[in-house]
Design goal:
Length: 430
Amino acid sequence: MACQPNHNLQPIHKTTFANGLRIVSSNMPHSHSVTIAVFVGVGSRYESEDQIGISHFLEHLLFKGTTNIPSPADISATIEDVGGSLNAGTEEELTTYWCKVPKHHFKISIDLLLDMLRNSLFQSSSIAKERTVVIEELNMIHDYPSYQIESLLDDMLWPNHPLGRDIGGTTDSLSKLSRPKIVDFFEEYYIPSNIVISVAGDLDHENIIDHIMDKSKNWANIDNKSYLPFNDNQSQPRTRVSYRKTEQANISLGIPSVPYNSQRKYALDLLSVLLGEGMSSRLFVEMRENKGLAYDVHSSTSYFLDCGAFIINAGVEPKNLYDSVQIILDQIGQLKHDVTETEINKARRTLIGRLLIHLEDTSSLAFYMGTQEILQGVITSPNTLIDTISKVTLEEVRRIAADLFVSSKLNLGVVGPFRGKRRLENILHL
């Protein structure tokens, strides 16, 4: 009998303070770096019509000075001067601030992040300047067809809902975000019970707790609002074409799927691996190796608190658009009846192997812990996750393919030199 591998993954520790602030950590004894990641449970889907883009704008503003460090340059220098990195990101359901530093600089790093969270100045002059910066950021990414196709698909998958909107907002929405509105939003969501601090590196959990507790005294808590639920009522396929004079047609096909906390997502992840993740996947072999139609074609999964999506992206020469879409549809349709045990086992090894490699890095582990804690309030240990993936059956994979991959749920977006969509609509079925 083959022995089960011992992955020697360190335990995850969690402490919740009286004000609701959660600290999670895992010790990595052989690491010289430490990553501190702060997760705030707010993102673009929490925004009302008059707040569009405020989560992302707020993320920028926390780097523009605090009562203790008024200069934005000094905030960056606090981390960069010790060889570390400092950054942030806004998503639909969370906002993250993180730094990675040599482990003996942990205290100054956590002090900086807590200072940004609690003592940001939000000066009117900084807001005015950063508004221009954010608008230029939006202008830059809007120039990329890959961004355009993502935006197009989001609007089809989540119509008339905050999930379908641009995370960064628009020039018009940003121009309406006043300082009082920004501060009110900050005070509503940047509260202890809506924040998780995740730490990975060669540090003892109790020492982490002692330091953060001392620095987070008198941090008051209030009740905050929830998100707008999404109700999927799609009953027929959708097609959207955006004309751009490009050398390549960008294709994105999306299908509504399961939410973040669904146990079925592991079967869907395995399907994504075998369909379009990697150079040995079905889509890559068929479209690139066999047909020579695409340089890049891949699939992915996306999960939110109450919904999700299975997505396929490809870039092809415009004359090959219709053949390429048909191949993608054929490959998805085949997943409903001809997936084999051998393929599932191969995908399983790939998924577990990626996880193990991923968690060797302090940043990856910090995000692994923090994302789960902020979104579902509990962290699945890597060993438990590996065990769960190992137990997914062929029948479970076939069942979720049959349930999700139906013609009425298809959403096809195309960005390129096309104006009509009738021919695409005619072939959009499984």
